[in-house]
Write a structure and sequence with these properties.
The chain is of the alpha+beta class and 121 residues long. It is built from two helices and five strands; from the N terminus they run H-E-E-E-H-E-E. The chain is globular, with a radius of gyration of 14 Å.
Length: 121
C-alpha cells in the first residue's frame, strides 16, 4: 500500500483517539456516499459531527486544513445530508476538521477545528 495511505490511516487513528478522549462517541468511520467519504462521524451533546481528517508530513504547500476546499466541502455536505436522512437525525450537525502535521517520525501536532466550515450549495 502507498505510504500516503498509511499516513492517512495513522492520522485517522490519532484523530479518533483524540475525539474519544474528548468525550465524543464515534458513530462511523470512512462512511461513503457516492464519491464522498466522511473520515469520522461522531456524536456529542446531541450533535452529529462530520469530521474530515487531514494528515501531512510538511506544510510547505499549506497547512493540512487548507486542503479541505469548496469541492471537498460540497461532497461532505452531500454525504452528511444522506446520513442525516438515513439516521432520521432531527438535531444539529457540525463540520469539523482534525489537522495532523508530522514533523518527525513520531512527533506531530494535532489541531481540532470545531465548526470549521458550513458548506454552501
Amino acid at each position: 500500500m502507498a505510504t500516503h495511505n498509511d499516513l492517512g490511516r495513522r492520522g485517522e487513528a490519532l484523530a479518533k483517539a483524540h475525539l474519544e478522549a474528548a468525550g465524543y462517541e464515534i458513530l462511523d468511520e470512512n462512511w461513503t456516499f457516492g464519491r464522498a467519504e466522511v473520515d469520522l462521524i461522531a456524536y456529542k451533546d446531541k450533535v452529529i459531527i462530520f469530521t474530515e481528517v487531514k494528515t501531512r508530513t510538511g506544510n510547505g504547500f499549506g497547512e493540512p486544513e487548507d486542503f479541505v476546499d469548496s469541492r471537498k466541502q460540497k461532497l461532505l455536505a452531500d454525504a452528511a445530508d444522506e446520513y442525516i436522512y438515513l439516521m432520521n437525525h432531527q438535531g444539529e450537525v457540525r463540520f469539523d476538521i482534525v489537522a495532523i502535521l508530522f514533523t518527525l517520525k513520531d512527533t506531530y501536532t494535532l489541531k481540532h477545528i470545531e465548526d470549521a466550515f458550513w458548506p454552501t450549495a
